[in-house]
User: Fold this.
Amino acid sequence: MSVEASSTQAVKQRTPWRIMRYWFFGGITLFALLAPWIRVNENHLFLLSFDKLKLHLMFVQFDMQEMYLMPFLLMILFIGVFGITVVGGRVFCGWMCPQTIFRTIYRDLIETKLLKLRKRIKNKQQEPDMSKPENKTKKVIAMLLWTALAFVAAADFMWFFVPPEDFFAYMMNPGDHMVLVTTVLIIVGFLLYDVVFMKENFCVYVCPYSRIQSVLYDDDTVMAIYDEHRGGKIYSEEKEKMYTKQKDLQAVEPNAECTACESCVTVCPTHIDIRQGLQLECINCLECVDACTTVMGKLGKESLVRWSSDREVLYRNGKTQYFRPKIIGYIVVLLIVSAILGVMGSKKEHMLLNVNKENRLYDITVLDDGRHKVDNAYIFLLQNTQNVDHTYYFDIIAPKGMEGKIKIAKPSDPFKVRPEVKKKQIVLLYTDEMLVDDATKDTVIPITIRAYALEDKENIVVERQSTFTFPRSDIFKNAK
Assistant:
């Protein structure tokens, strides 16, 4: 077998990037649809419920008072996207962005494969001829199909804020949940306008990410790049097209390999010419790489458009450096933020307790046996963050030397709290002993309140710091 035939065969055997993107899109879509339904101990993988004021993260439930975790999640998201951009350009746009996935479903699946409204998937520049009556009918059918899918997408989006078990129950009574219904309709309307009418103009003109990417790129950023050393220079320094035919190009550059077939142009979803160099509109979908691979493969040559870096293709200054200082910095920051999130998340309290001391400092009463009793009153606001009923009580931990001398007068028995309920409990602590013999001032004694669920004292337990005020010794002794 000749070298040329071998090269051609090798090129033909490679799975096109477009097919791999389809599989990747399918995996992302399947995950997005299934994730809201997966629950462990009634907790979701991710759920930000404004309805119940809860955050579910990695099957752990957090109360809104623990929303200090959200900034760390957002930092991980943005740092991760920026890091991906430094490594692979707008690979997020081409491979993970919902806008790209939705446009691919509508354009490639519905318009091209199902309804034959478009002639070929590889020609994304040519819009359907709407002068034909049958095409108008197909366009309406395509919009109706996409509207149905838009409702699914809108519902799936809302499931991360209103869990499916509540979403469908609410939808059975739409009049009582107009905010939810209106939000779904707004999302559906936006998706219909965005995908059918705005198209890739959203990526080009609306999405701010394309403006951010230019400051993140460096010579080792991997993206779709045209090799003008082999193919020839098609555009001038002023970005004006100089050649439209191969013979004109080869008259100036005899070794130029570009055939001027423009397959890389017609296949581009954002309507750019990759041969013009780096452009904000490029979403790194790599369809131009597939197109050039097919054309050049028939000639027994490697593609002129490669998924590589400026260092390798334009400057020919060695191999792409993937683990460069900038990337290592992103990885370190991500690990640090993730570690902080993990530590803070592991300290989740399985019950919430606020302790407020009443304004009056104390009450003194004289017992039947002549002893004096000092009372301090508190208000406990307790919330059961679990999914089952629990019975709670608490202990008082006093400073050294006062152990067991500050006691609970009220409540005398444990009390039950239902899930998601905030219970207000009046608490009375007392002592009938001389804790501090100080005739000059009242003494504020630090105490620890250890509250727990009787069903699981080891795990469902919290400690709060408070104080117990003991009166001056003359007041204590002379009380009547």
Summary: The chain has two domains: 1-37+89-317, 351-478.
